[in-house]
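Cross-posting from the chemistry board since nobody answered there.

I work mostly on the small-molecule side, so proteins are not my area. We synthesized flavin mononucleotide and want a rough idea of how it might sit in this target. Sequence and SMILES are below. Is it possible to get a predicted 3D structure of the two together?
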Amino acid sequence: MSKKVLVISTSIRAKSNSEVLAHAFEDGAKAAGHDVEFVSLKDKNIAFCKGCLACQKMGRCVINDDANEITEKILNAEAVVWATPIYYYEMSGQMKTMIDRANSLFPRDYQFRDVYLLSVAAEDDEETDARAVSGLNGWIDCFEHARFAGKVFAGGVDAPGAIEGHPALKEAYELGKTI
Ligand SMILES: Cc1cc2nc3c(=O)[nH]c(=O)nc-3n(C[C@H](O)[C@H](O)[C@H](O)COP(=O)(O)O)c2cc1C
């Protein structure tokens, strides 16, 4: 059955490696017949969460910037795919800021069930993405109907575009196909 899939690419760098990885996943999910939307945080205006918690009553954030539209897309997607560069052995600040700004989702009738993580880093140790996986699971733990459904990590890529030819691209494509 066709699913609504949202891919959120959080690197804002030109020729982003994690964005290429995200597109590979997108291609796989599309090949499997899913309805995939790709959102990049590039050129988006997203302020930090102020922590006022007005969102819990209003169902949206009081800050009127691009985060609200992305939050609505997360609300309505059945699968959410986060793509991030590893920054200091964690998810990027952009990704964390978007997660925080989507705090209105908490009391709402969110549709997402499967959550995926795609990440890239200069280092090629298999533990390099561990804290980012853990951080994303902290978010997922707050949504009882959601689960961590899978991940792809591409290590050893640093310069813009260095991911070209990396085996993780095929892995991401195949994971996208399994949704
Ligand atoms: C602020 C910052 C912190 C980073 N921290 C790490 C790190 O902890 N470990 C690592 O292996 N690479 C680290 N990197 C390298 C990036 O993960 C790497 O360049 C990656 O390919 C960037 O992905 P992108 O092209 O999608 O932005 C860091 C890069 C930046 C800019």
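Reply from a structural biologist on the board:
Welcome over. Reading the output above for you: The chain has one domain: 4-177. The radius of gyration is 15 Å. Happy to explain the token format if needed.
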